[in-house]
Amino acid sequence: MAKKENQNIADSTEQKIFDAAHEVFVQKGMDGAKMQEIADRAGINKALLHYYYRSKDKLYEAVARAVIGRAAPMISQLIESDKPLEEKIRHFIEIYISIISKNPFIPLFIISEINKHPDHFFEKILPAELPKPQIFIRQVEEEIAAGRIRPVNPKHLVINIVSMCVFPFIAKPMARFALGLNSAELKIFLEERKVQVTEFVLASLRP
Amino acid sequence: MAKKENQNIADSTEQKIFDAAHEVFVQKGMDGAKMQEIADRAGINKALLHYYYRSKDKLYEAVARAVIGRAAPMISQLIESDKPLEEKIRHFIEIYISIISKNPFIPLFIISEINKHPDHFFEKILPAELPKPQIFIRQVEEEIAAGRIRPVNPKHLVINIVSMCVFPFIAKPMARFALGLNSAELKIFLEERKVQVTEFVLASLRP
DNA sequence: GAACAGTTTAACCAGTTGGTTAATTTTAGG
DNA sequence: CCTAAAATTAACCAACTGGTTAAACTGTTC
Question: So what's the ipTM on this one?
Answer without folding.
Answer: 0.86
